């Protein structure tokens, strides 16, 4: 006899299943999202063989001309995608509310229409008149750009049949509902059905499809995890609300690298690509200022220069403040401990503030040396020599560790006019016997017109730049 149906419970946010009801999802930790799901009979179905749609051929005979990259009209987006839009590709663009996802995709749709490729923009969050107002403001009105305001999957598929677009933009996939499927639009079952139907149409009709996705409080893509698996490309659109600077990162890409980053400037007149964003993160000081140092960080495969600023002030509090903006607070605490233990810089009775310029976020350890130079310079009131960049990871023993892509970082700094790079010493390289100021340093290797100075530890680096006093005795050790 067949087994009785088994009751299961499923989370409406992420699709997690459990044998009994719980108040909090064990996967996404959402409260009140676990509901009773359809029961399973436990029987095994057998599927008979059916006719194939296309005969199997040797892989060498498969044509690749139909899947060639097509420029989107936005160079920074093409950089992230690996060359442009691929016919039949499904792209998922996720980001926080108000970051500029709709503005970016409307610009892509307009640029595609200007290239005489028919484009269909389906909006489920706004009315057609609201999108038209944005298009008037950004200059995106074109005869080849079709606009439809729909929230039903069947109506969207009908629009695709009638318009036959080359590019399809759906804003957003959580607002489209499929009739005959349980759940409300945005639920796990609905999102899976809508995404599967749109991806199926994209593959069969060779339509480039871009889906807009919502994000949760922790920044992950809302909906079932299968949504990220069925698409070809997953992009994250991020940026600070207090800044016009926006970045697009590729989290998954079947047609190109996943370590590329695109930079954009969002303004009232629309969104524009920023091909050289370094100037946004570096201040142009006419004179040397204490407590500043320029670091070279890697955003994907693109080197970016960012200025790190430090401020040190005396305090009478028993617990001095350690405040960061754009930097990791734990990295600052570690750098301060190294400066005290191995460089003799006592900051236990001082407040320390560290920040970046222009809202840049420095998360990689390669910016440790620049942070140490900025804090030491602020503590002693001594400016960093002009035209110097510093890069290197600081260890707990005070040593400097090598960083990746060092030639690319040096080349970018040289292109922007910097002339001295303070970097970790290579293995087997001999440490300089006499530490001098960088303006009167002994002959050192020159790369791309820059003097590259290798130092073994952070103490030597600070003495090389003369941002700290010479120590007559070793710092106190525990």
Automatic annotation (TrEMBL):
It holds the Pfam family Zn_ribbon_LapB. One of its GO terms (biological process) is recombinational repair. ATP binds at residues 95-102. The keyword Acyltransferase does not apply. HAMAP family: RadA_bact. Belongs to the RecA family. RadA subfamily. The middle region has homology to RecA with ATPase motifs including the RadA KNRFG motif, while the C-terminus is homologous to Lon protease. This is DNA repair protein RadA. It comes from Nocardioides panaciterrulae. The gene is radA.
């Amino acid at each position: 006899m067949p087994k009785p149906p088994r009751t299961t419970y499923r989370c409406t946010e992420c699709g997690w299943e459990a044998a009994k009801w719980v108040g909090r999802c064990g996967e996404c930790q959402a409260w009140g999202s676990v509901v009773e799901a359809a029961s399973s009979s436990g029987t095994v179905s057998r599927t008979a063989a059916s006719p194939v749609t296309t005969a199997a051929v040797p892989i060498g005979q498969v044509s690749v001309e139909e899947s060639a990259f097509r420029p989107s009209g936005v160079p920074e987006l093409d950089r992230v995608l690996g060359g442009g839009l691929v016919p039949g590709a499904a792209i998922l663009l996720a980001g926080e509310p108000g970051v500029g996802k709709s503005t970016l995709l409307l610009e892509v749709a307009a640029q595609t229409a200007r290239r005489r490729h028919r484009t269909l923009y389906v909006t489920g969050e706004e009315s057609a008149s609201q999108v038209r107002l944005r298009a008037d403001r950004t200059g995106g009105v074109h005869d080849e750009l079709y606009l439809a305001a729909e929230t039903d999957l069947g109506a969207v598929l009908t629009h695709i049949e009638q318009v036959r677009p080359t590019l399809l933009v759906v804003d957003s996939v959580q607002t489209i509902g499929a009739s005959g499927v349980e759940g409300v639009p945005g639920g796990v079952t609905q999102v899976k059905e809508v995404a599967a139907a749109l991806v199926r149409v994209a593959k069969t009709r060779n339509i480039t499809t871009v889906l807009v996705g919502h994000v949760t409080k922790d920044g992950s893509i809302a909906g079932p995890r299968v949504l990220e698996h069925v698409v070809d490309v997953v992009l994250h659109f991020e940026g600070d609300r207090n800044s016009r600077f926006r970045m697009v990162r590729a989290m998954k890409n079947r047609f190109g690298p996943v370590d590329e980053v695109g930079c954009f400037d969002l303004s009232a007149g629309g969104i524009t690509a920023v091909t050289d964003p370094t100037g946004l993160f570096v201040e142009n000081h006419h004179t040397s200022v204490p407590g500043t140092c320029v670091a070279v960080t890697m955003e994907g495969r693109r080197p970016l220069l960012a200025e790190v600023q430090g401020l040190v002030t005396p305090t009478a509090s028993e617990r001095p403040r350690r405040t960061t903006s754009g930097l990791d607070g734990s990295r600052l605490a570690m750098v301060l401990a190294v400066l005290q233990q191995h460089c003799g810089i006592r900051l236990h009775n001082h407040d320390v503030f560290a920040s970046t310029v222009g809202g840049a976020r420095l998360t990689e350890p390669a910016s440790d040396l620049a942070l140490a130079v900025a804090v030491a310079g602020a503590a002693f009131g001594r400016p960093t020599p002009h035209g110097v960049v510093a890069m290197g990871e600081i260890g707990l023993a005070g040593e400097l560790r090598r960083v990746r892509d060092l030639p690319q970082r040096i080349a970018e700094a040289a292109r922007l006019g910097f002339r001295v790079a303070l970097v970790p010493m290579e293995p087997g390289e001999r440490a300089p016997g006499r530490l001098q100021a960088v303006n009167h340093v002994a002959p050192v290797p020159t790369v791309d017109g820059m003097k590259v100075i290798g130092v073994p530890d952070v103490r030597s680096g600070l003495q090389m730049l003369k941002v700290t006093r010479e120590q007559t005795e070793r710092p106190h050790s525990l």
